[in-house]
């Protein structure tokens, strides 16, 4: 008598990418926002969209990823005001704006990314799609000088109204980096040598 065949595994829901297949998951989220540029390094889904579709992409993902974790930026400049010059080949100079969206109950998360040219640091605000984007955009405005068009309350969040400059730009000359090399060389003083080798009694010992 033959043993009964085990029941077939249920077919995966095409709308819910499997956590075991990061490339498929990344491609799924990229397709939802109409992007062909995505990455899944270190099991982190990152999707790139053009600036003109920044808000539209977030609106498309909001029903699936309702939690807005954070928004920030990266200054991809080749020159730094203070400190050691950058190593390696020059990069395309730009400001990259990034946000992280997630569904904490399903364990899904996506990082959205877009580029701004250094001479035009403006992008539409996400505050109308994700309320939590409000103060993250104000922080990025303070630290990087990015203007979020349509923001409901574009006042400074950290810096005073009279503050000059944007501290997270590579061109900003932080005083701490001028006083001491940043992140700072550390001189390690070796410990005093032991009087006896391990396992050997010291003079006068038993």
Could you describe the 3D structure shown?
With 206 residues, the chain is of the alpha/beta class. The protein is built from four helices and seven strands. The protein is globular and about 70 Å long. It has one domain (22-179): NADH:ubiquinone oxidoreductase Nqo5 subunit (Beta Polymerase, domain 2), CATH 3.30.460. A hairpin with a 4-residue loop joins strand 4 (95-103) and strand 5 (108-116). It has a five-stranded mixed β-sheet. The protein is 17% helix and 19% strand. The longest helix has 12 residues, at 133-144. Mean pLDDT is 83; it is low at 16-21.
Mean pLDDT: 83
Please give the CATH class: Alpha Beta
Oligomer: single chain
Instruction: Give me the number of helical elements.
Output: 4
Low-confidence stretches: 16-21
Side-by-side strand order of the widest sheet: 1-2-5-4-3
CATH homology superfamily = NADH:ubiquinone oxidoreductase Nqo5 subunit
Instruction: Kindly identify the CATH topology.
Output: Beta Polymerase, domain 2
Taking the alpha carbons of the first and last residues, their distance comes to 78 Å
**Mind summarizing the main beta sheet?**
5 strands, mixed
Residues in helix, % = 10-25%
Secondary-structure element order, N to C: HEEHEEEEHEH
Strand residue content: 15-25%
Question: Which structural class is indicated by helix and strand composition?
Answer: alpha/beta
Q: State the total count of DSSP E strands.
A: 7
Domain module count? 1
Described by the principal axes of the CA atoms, the overall outline is globular
Q: How large, in whole angstroms, is the Cα Rg?
A: 26 Å
CATH architecture title: 2-Layer Sandwich
């Amino acid at each position: 008598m033959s043993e009964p065949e085990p029941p077939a595994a249920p077919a995966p829901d095409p709308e819910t990418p499997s956590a075991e297949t990061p490339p498929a998951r990344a491609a799924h989220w990229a397709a939802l926002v109409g992007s062909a540029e995505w990455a899944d390094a270190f099991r982190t889904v990152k999707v790139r969209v053009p600036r003109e579709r920044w808000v539209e992409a977030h609106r498309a993902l909001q029903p699936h990823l309702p939690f807005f974790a954070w928004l920030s930026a990266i200054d991809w400049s080749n020159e730094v005001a203070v400190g050691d010059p950058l190593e390696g080949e020059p990069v395309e100079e730009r400001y990259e704006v990034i946000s992280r969206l997630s569904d904490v109950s399903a364990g899904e998360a996506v990082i959205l990314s877009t580029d701004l040219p250094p001479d035009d640091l403006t992008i539409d605000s996400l505050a109308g799609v994700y309320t939590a984007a409000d103060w993250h955009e104000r922080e990025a405005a303070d630290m990087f000088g990015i203007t979020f068009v349509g923001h409901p309350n574009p006042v400074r969040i950290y810096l005073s109204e009279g503050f000059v400059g944007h501290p997270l730009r590579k061109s900003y000359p932080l005083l701490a980096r001028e006083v001491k090399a940043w992140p700072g060389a550390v001189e390690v003083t070796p410990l005093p040598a032991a009087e006896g080798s391990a396992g050997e009694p010291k003079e006068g010992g038993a």
